[in-house]
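Q: Now give one record:
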Amino acid sequence: MPYSMPDVYYPDEQFSSVATEHAIPSEQRLWQRVILQAITDAQGKANGIKKEERQDAIQQAIRWFKGNGENFQEVCLMAGFEPSMVRKNVMMLLRKRGVIV
């Protein structure tokens, strides 16, 4: 059974400390990084994205979280997180940061 995501993960936090504490398998950490990258993208903070492509990356990431689709749910489960908790916490973070209203 997946464990729920802590209140809010911020993109600059390291998953390594979580992984060390709970002995999380490397594959699970990989999927956690996918979620972390989507959070980073949604905030417009991703590196390596051209300025003209940044807005599209932001919108795609936000749609991925908001859409709550099969892909999103599978990634969350493979990361060991409850999808509804990830969505709730990420939406809260994005509202708090003024990314979405």
Remarks:
- The radius of gyration is 13 Å.
